Amino acid sequence: MSDNSQLSYQLNYQLNYQNGFGNEHETEALNGALPRGQFNPQKAPMGLYAEQFSTTAFTAPRHQNRRTWMYRIRPSVVQSNYKALVAEKIRSAPITEIITPPDLLRWNSLSFSDKPLDFINSLTTIAANGSVHTQTGSAIHIYTASISMENRFFCNADGEILIVPQEGALLARTELGLLHIHPGEILIIPRGIKFQIQLPAGKARGYICENYGSPFELPERGPVGANGFANDRDFQYPVAHFEDIDDEFELITKFNGNLFSCALNHSPLDVVAWVGNSAPYKYDLSTFNAINSVSFDHPDPSIFTVLTSRSETTGVANIDFVIFPPRWVVAENTFRPPYFHRNIMSEFMGLIHGTYDAKEEGFVPGGFSLHNCMSPHGPEASVYEKASKANLKPERYKDTLAFMFESRFIYSPTRFAFESNTRQNDYIHCWQGLKKQFKDA
User: Fold this and answer.
1) Which of 245, 243, 247, 251 is nearest to 271 (CA)?
2) What is the pLDDT of residue 10?
3) Alpha-carbon gap, residue 143 to 125, rounded angstroms
4) CA-based nearest residue to 92, from 139, 136, 142
5) How many CB atoms lie within 10 A of CB 48?
6) What does the pLDDT read at residue 208?
7) Which residue in 180, 241, 298, 429 is the catalytic one?
8) Residues β-bridged to residue 356
9) Which single residue of 3, 116, 245, 339 could bond 267 by disulfide (Cβ 3.0 to 4.6 Å)?
10) At 233, is the secondary structure helix, strand, or coil?
11) What residues contact 345, with CB distance under 8 A and at least 6 apart?
12) pTM of the prediction?
């Protein structure tokens, strides 16, 4: 789990969390702020306003329904009209700036700008699929922030946000409370939640999956049974934490693929109490219980799925979030790195730290690759040669953490990504050393 002493040192105060994925949490920053026995009394306690926040349809089945009741100093409707903004580096699906090729693509990490940029200003879209208009698919962004957000907040009406830090800690100040994360953890912010990102440890870089589809949930375990993979208990939600500040603030909202700005005369982080199951949460990836083969052959990467967003087709994900964590590898008479393959899913990979077992060179921390559907890929020539001759004793993969956003839809890169000087135009060459070894018996 996260080191709470380090967290306290960085933030100068202790954060508390509520545990349990999708639980009906309840929390109040002031005793008596939360109504008892009902959600919407004629007069809410302490002169607060009751406001329901829903991230699924009202009539969604009970086990899928997500909503939270907030008790706040001012209702969210207290704001000005919006003004359109120009989004220079942020894109939404469908992306049609260039023709998407079936080529295998890989990039080095994006550098930090010499210009101070906060979390929102630093967002750069790499690729997207589906459609923001029909609420299918996802977009992938990189953030390279060097300053904290001050007097401005962000709200994404287009999708749920999954943040994967690669460098530097983040403090997410949300309507429902505070969450602190660092590389090795992830943060999920529901669609429509207002938040602000501060940088307690200086500059920060990482990956973002903007999920247009159904909210992330835990995948089924199937024949694995009741235990393994990500456990519900390890997902942490904030406790109520509010501020009552009358001042000038800006709210930036992403809506229907565009950015808009409106003025606020108060901080939107004025929720004194809340109850519900739609809230931001964090997860420490080191608590993932990896399952693997103890006999022979290489299981499919689906065994490493942390979260999934369902599509209308059973068993085919709108998007899966998959990790490749430290683990033991013991399979006998088996080629242990990821095998050569082609499949219907499109794969965007990133590296948080260390090296990835199928790509020992060129795939760098902070970098990323895109292998779209049916594009063949697998271990590079040097990895194949090494793994084919390895002495197959039990081996501990350590000091590594890679991840994958895997989707049923083809990812279209942005023009920026495709033409970026960080793109490795010679990426395909890493397979050219795979020579014919066939021998007619």
Assistant:
1) 243
2) 58
3) 9
4) 139
5) 23
6) 98
7) 298
8) 359
9) 245
10) helix
11) 317, 320, 373, 406, 407, 408
12) 0.95
For residue 155, give the nearest of 50, 265, 281, 260 by alpha carbon.
Answer: 260
pLDDT at residue 256 is higher than 80: yes
Residues near 71 by beta carbon (within 8 Å), at least 6 away in sequence? 28, 33, 34, 35, 44, 45, 46, 48, 49, 50, 51, 271, 272, 273, 274
Structure tokens at 246: 């009358």
Least confidently predicted of 28-37, 154-163, 263-272, 298-307: 298-307
Residue 220 corresponds to which tokens in the numbers above?
């089924």
Q: Which two tokens stand for residue 245?
A: 């500040």
Both structure tokens of 400: 């590594």
What is the average pLDDT score of the chain? 94
- Distance CA(44)–CA(286), nearest Å, equals 41
> Can you give the three-state secondary structure of 281-337, one letter per residue?
EEEEHHHCECCCCCCCCCCCHHHHEEEEEECCCCCCEEEEEEEECCEEECCCCCCCC
Strands 235-238 and 281-284: antiparallel
Q: State the Cα angle at 335 between 331 and 337, rounded to 5°.
A: 95
Active-site residue, 371 included: no
Cα 312 to Cα 59: distance, rounded to the nearest angstrom: 17
Peptide bond into 94 cis (omega under 30): yes
Please determine, for residue 53, whether its predicted confidence score (pLDDT) is greater than 60: yes
The predicted model gives 53-73 an average pLDDT of 96
Over range 47-63, report the average pLDDT. Answer: 96
- Token pair recorded at residue 121: 């200003």
| 41, 386, 428 from 436: Cα distances, Å | 75, 16, 17
Q: What is the mean pLDDT of residues 117-123?
A: 97
* Alpha carbons 40 and 42: distance in angstroms, whole number: 7
CA–centroid distance for 38 within its chain:
34
Sheet order of strands, 317-324 included: 105-107, 368-371, 346-353, 401-407, 317-324, 305-310
CB atoms within 10 A of CB 407: 31
- Look at the alpha carbons of 191, 195, 200, 203 in this order and tell me if their dihedral is positive or negative: positive
Asked if residues 178 and 192 have their Cβ atoms less than 8 Å apart, the reply is no
- 332, 394 in Cβ contact below 8 A? no
Measured CA distances, 304 to 212, 218, 322 (Å)? 22, 12, 5
Q: 355-364: string of b/e by CB count within 10 Å (b at 16+)?
A: bbbbbeeebb
Mean pLDDT of 163-189: 98
Secondary structure E strands in 146-248: 152-156, 160-167, 170-174, 177-181, 185-189, 194-198, 204-211, 235-238
Q: What is the average pLDDT across 397-416? A: 96
Dig out the tokens for 318 from the structure.
């709108």
Other Cβ atoms closer than 10 A to 131: 15
Q: What phi and psi values does residue 428 have, to the nearest 5 degrees?
A: -60, -20
